[in-house]
Amino acid sequence: MNRQLAGTGALLRLALRRDRVMMPVWVLVTGLLVASMPGSLEKVYGTAAERAELASSMNANGSMRALYGPVFGDSLGALTSWRMGVYGAVLAAVMSLIIVIRHTREEEETGRQEMLSAAMVGRRAPLTAALLAALVANACVVLIVVGGLAGQGGPGALALGLAIGGAGLLFAGIAAVAAQLTESARAAKGLTSAVLGAAFVLKAAGDAGTPAGACALTWISPLGWLENARAFAGERWWVLLLLVAGVALATGAAYLLSGRRDLGMGFLPARPGPAEGRLGTAGALAWRLQRGSLVGWGAAFLVAGLVFGGMADGAADVVGGNEKTRRIIERMGGQSGLTDAFLAAMAGLFGMIAALYVVSSVLRLSGEESAQRAEPLLSNAVGRLRWAGGHLAVAFGGSAVILLLAGLGLGIGHGRDLGTTVGASLAQLPAVWLLGALAALLYGALPKYAVAGWAVAGVALALGWIGPALDLPQSVMNVSPFTHLPKLPGPEALDWAPLLTLTVLAAALVAAGLGALRRRDLVA
Amino acid sequence: MTKAISVAGLHKAFGRTHALDGLDLDVTAGEVHGFLGPNGAGKSTTIRVLLGLLRADAGTVSLLGGDAWADAVALHRRIAYVPGDVTLWRNLSGGEVIDLYGRLRGGLDRARRTELLERFELDPTKKGRTYSKGNRQKVALVAAFASDVELLILDEPTSGLDPLMEEVFQSCVAEARDAGRTILLSSHILSEVETLCDRVSIIRAGRTVETGTLAELRHLTRTSIRAELAGPPNGIAHLPGVYDVDVRGLKVSLQADTDKLDAVLRSLTASGVRSLTSTPPTLEELFLRHYTTADEANAR
């Protein structure tokens, strides 16, 4: 055992050193988002009566339960757990999967692990060091959450902190398994994200139809375990044991798999490709490189659309007739009729997630350039505009395709005319395009800071998710392009003005980005 | 003689570092031109300016009669480039990449492609991620040599090839020259340069320090001479252009400036020569001499 783990300490220090910026940012953002929630809630719902009303109205509404889960109590702590528990866990999970895959599969893929493993490094050391790095990060999140929420009640703070950290560690374990199965870091991240997305959809589907998190679908999802731990509302400590068991199972599987494969290899073997190729243009190459990921996103959007569409009526059954709820639902997207409100909220959710697709697809350009694959390609008779245009066409066309699929899924699942749901879903497109266009502008003008495209999308997402329940001032909400979209489906006549304005703005930003790309040096 | 590449007074700065500081480069159409210099001298930067990937700060850069930046796409139809570090798309096979590059240039000679795959012993069905460094380079080399282009720009193209493949590469370069193509070859393998190149440019710290045929460059350097004489040498150490004289009885070894050889040989034959070996400077010595003198010049 000792030989297998030799060098773990050195590798862990290397990992922490390499992540010295990324990890604290993730930890602080995740921890503080959760820990600051009681203060934010208190500003809006100052009295116990207001909070009780919020809790009962939120519980009565299926679309709210789908998005945030059921409310188990009306204390500030319980409301914090309701509002931020699942999202804190999602953030911790994404942080963990990035850390684990970055220090396992990515190291092997780039060939750096080969040099390290030639030194005094045991066979199990890289995986162990990556999992320990994830443990350190999640432990810090737990400390911030527990410390920040201790004032709301020690046991509740501990339960919520441990549940968030436990979910993060569980996805660290799942990422470790994915890293053994696939040969590329991109595929490993995609696989783990797919599991995370499935966990969210299961939890949402279960909660939409059933109050109090009792649905079997909710119990299948690790994110459902988190809400069922009921922090600040009579903690059920035994539910945390499920997380412990899950972590043990996933990491055990990862170690088992890692012991049975060679360095750099996966379990899904590489098949030979064609000896002659048909690719003849830069556009065809862009499509070939991105089609796999587009197919994955499209399938996920279609399935999620079907699931959410199917629960729309159930979600609207329970009446949430009070004024405050209606106001919040209106801000979330709906205008009248709880079914419409639910569908509109779902369309908005798809829009925000499609923003992640468009940013990742646009930033493929940046990846191709920094991996030095753009340089030999552009030394052929390929103009930069044509090359970039191919990737941008996939990004912007692809986001239209996945939103179309989501709209179809919602319509088919709900059993209602497809035009309404497809229209509601496609109405998100101008805002999605605007975020993609900002990423394209950043890439063209400031290639070193192209990753800031993620931050821009992140701000828009955070405003969309957290803003409505916090009653943020309109001027702040206006920062997000999604705020300006018409609420569909709704009774009012469709207002085309914001859609056209956003689309024209997006086109102008893309044009500016391409102009900058044409004039600048390629990054070596 | 038409110029395939003509660069004059090229400047390129990245922030405060001056990568290229008034570089000149002339490559005649139809020749194999060696492009030498220590690491960080600016070879790859020059090549990237030639390819229109970087924009020159100052100076003129013309390729095949066009402007490297403004006419980049039209020029690239007539150019093939092989980088020193070839990165491929992990999920595309080598054959797909070769065909893609061929189509994005002037077109691909199918028969030549098949022949080159055989000569380089490259399996085109493997995916990008499974190739070794040498095999990735072969993918780029097959794509370049099978393309119907006028100018080949090769940036340390053989750093990962084994000696057998190095031989194949050298014959491919010779065939390309015989077919009338121009080749700019940046390399650290001096024997390769010595065998292949008609003319050579040596650059250092972003400037061209020497350019010409190997014979011309040799002329500027020293020849080493060993001789066994019939009688004791007479005053040879005092001749101009003679260095490192070592006399052991009747055996003499020395270094002489190549343009002073005549006087040195006269002095030696005056004592009677029994045996004589004269070694022209190798490219290595030539190379090292340029670098060390430049170092000394910098130190002063």
Describe the protein in words:
The complex is a heterodimer of chains A (524) and B (300). Chain A is mainly α. Chain A has helices at 8-18, 22-35, 37-44, 48-60, 62-68, 76-103, 105-110, 112-117, 125-149, 154-181, 185-209, 216-220, 222-228, 237-258, 282-310, 312-317, 323-332, 338-362, 364-370, 374-378, 384-414, 418-426, 429-445, 452-470, 474-477, 496-519. The radius of gyration of chain A is 23 Å and the shape is globular. Chain A starts with 7 loop residues before the first helix and ends in a 5-residue tail after the last helix. The relative contact order of chain A is 0.09. With 300 residues, chain B is α/β, with parallel strands linked by helices. Chain B folds into two domains: 3-217, P-loop containing nucleotide triphosphate hydrolases (Rossmann fold, 3-Layer(aba) Sandwich); 222-280, 2-Layer Sandwich (Alpha-Beta Plaits). Helix content of chain B is 35%, strand content 31%. Chain B has helices spanning 43-50, 72-76, 94-104, 110-119, 133-145, 163-178, 190-196, 214-219, 261-271, 283-299; strands at residues 3-14, 17-28, 32-36, 58-63, 66-67, 79-82, 151-155, 182-186, 199-204, 207-213, 222-229, 242-248, 251-257, 273-279. In chain B, the strands form three sheets. Chain B has a six-stranded mixed beta sheet with strand order 6-7-8-3-9-10, with helices on both faces. A four-stranded antiparallel beta sheet of chain B has the order 2-1-4-5, with helices on one face. A four-stranded antiparallel beta sheet of chain B has the order 12-13-11-14. In chain B, helix 3 (94-104) packs parallel to helix 5 (133-145). The radius of gyration of chain B is 23 Å and the shape is elongated. The chains are: A mainly alpha (524), B alpha/beta (300). The interface between A and B is large, with 37 and 44 residues. Chain B: It is found in: Cell membrane. Chain B: Its EC number is 3.6.3.-.
